[in-house]
Amino acid sequence: MKFYLSSKQGKSARLKTSATLVLAGFILVGLVTSIGIYTVWGNTMTDKHATRTSNNWRENKFVNTSIDYSTNFKNIWEVGKAFFTTKRQTPLPKKALPVQSITREEILNEKNDVVYRLGHSSLLMKVSEKIILADPVFSERASPFETMGPKRFHQSPISIAELPDVDAVIISHDHYDHLDKKSIRLLDKKVKRYFVPLGVGTTLQAWGISTTKVVELDWWQTQSINNIDITATPAQHFSGRGLFDRDKTLWASWVIRSPETKLFFSGDSGYFDGFKQIGERYGPFDLTMIETGAYNELWSDIHMLPEQSVQAHIDLKGKAMLPVHNSTFDLALHDWYEPLERATSAANQNNVKLLTPVMGEKIEIHAPANYRAWWREQVEEEKHSQFALTKLIPANNN
Ligand SMILES: [Zn+2]
Ligand SMILES: [Zn+2]
After folding, report:
1. How far is the CA of 367 from the centre of ligand 1 (A)?
2. Based on CB atoms within 10 Å of each CB, which residue in 119, 189, 231, 255 is the most buried?
3. How big is the chain by its Cα radius of gyration, in Å?
């Protein structure tokens, strides 16, 4: 895109205009961080054979199956405008959200087939005597910066120090709200295996993680730990941690199957026909953990609206659905509690069993409880609260 100035404008006017454009560009790009694009240098991936031979690798980047999602000036402008003009009642909770603490003993003594939501898309599962973590983010912010970027609404129900050894860490993609360098580094001595989409292993390697611990998979590929099959499945999204690594690593959803239990974890995704395919191949699922948050009509190609999340669960042939990717970070333009409210209505209309535990509250996969609508209590309490969120969240919860 070119910008033309009239001949009457002098050099200083041109400089001023250029500076304004550069500044506007920085602000807009900064705003777009909320949908996963960041303005820092990222890792560049090595040209590995597995990547080059992947069906999802075209002309030097990974691609989606049914859309071509690219960020151009027009959509950056529209997103930027929306960030400036959208009026929100309650983007953030005014006080920390309720959390049920978990101890190492509790996890070790717990029977199989339980899931705990730790925050955002971070999940702890105990299946067939193995402990599995998905997208573990324990840091205070989902950001490349320690002092800037979306700050969490609540403490983690368990610290990294308190966690027992972890048999597998599963990563959906390399965005900051799913793959957190600090958390991975602190966790690493407890972790036996990482399951990551193609290319993400290179990022882990750059952070000092031993390659012998990393299993990189393309969509539909499976690796097992004992009797648990872990399969990378499609998602409709994008990747990148910096300006120059856009779509250089793959994004995925995951299927986890033990002899007793079948689980689905969506990672981040727009609504697409992949959910039906996954449902046909691996469903029905005892529990689906599906992104329900950080959505907007402007970017619904890569993040589902809550009604679409519920439809994805139906397509997957899920028995119960845990909405994730909400209630920890403010990454979009909706009120913090809206994803749970809209998902609840959509679930009720479609006869879907929706699980809404507070963070850290146990889910028994084969006999899930009816959880209360805790966010409504929070909203009600906040009407009378004078607390600022910042006063209730310690600076570091690792
Ligand atoms: Zn993402
Ligand atoms: Zn995300």
Report:
1. 31
2. 119
3. 21
Residues 6+ apart with CB under 8 A from 19: none
- Residue 394 half-sphere exposure toward CB, CA atoms < 13 A: 7
Ligand 1 centroid, distance to 318 Cα (angstroms): 23
- The residues, any chain, with a CB within 8 Å of residue 251's CB and separated by 6 or more, are 62, 172, 173, 174, 197, 235, 237, 238, 239, 267, 268, 269
Dump pLDDT digits (tens) for 332-359. Answer: 999 999 999 999 999 999 999 999 999 9
How do beta strands 287-291 and 320-324 pair? parallel
Q: Ligand 1 centroid to 274 CA: how many Å?
A: 17
pLDDT tens digits for range 143-178 = 988 888 899 999 999 999 999 999 999 999 999 999
Answer yes or no: are the C-beta atoms of 167 and 225 closer than 8 Å. Answer: yes
Ligand closest to the CA atom of residue 175:
1
What spacing in Å lies between the alpha carbon of 144 and ligand 2's midpoint? 14
Give the orientation angle of helix 338-349 with respect to helix 306-315, to 10 degrees.
Answer: 40
**Would you tell me how many other CB atoms lie within 10 Å of the CB of residue 127?**
25
Helix, strand, coil fractions of the chain, as percent rounded to 5? 30, 20, 55
**Domains of the chain and any CATH numbers:** 104-392 (3.60.15.10)
Ligand 2 centre distance from Cα of residue 24 (Å): 25
Cβ–Cβ under 8 Å, residues 187 and 163: yes
Report how far ligand 2's centroid is from the alpha carbon of 79 (Å). 17
Bridge pairing between strands 114-119 and 362-364:
antiparallel
pTM: predicted TM-score of the whole model, two decimal places: 0.86
Ligand nearest to the CA of 328: 2
Q: Distance from the CA of 270 to the center of ligand 2, in angstroms?
A: 11
Distance 27 CA to ligand 1 centre (A): 20
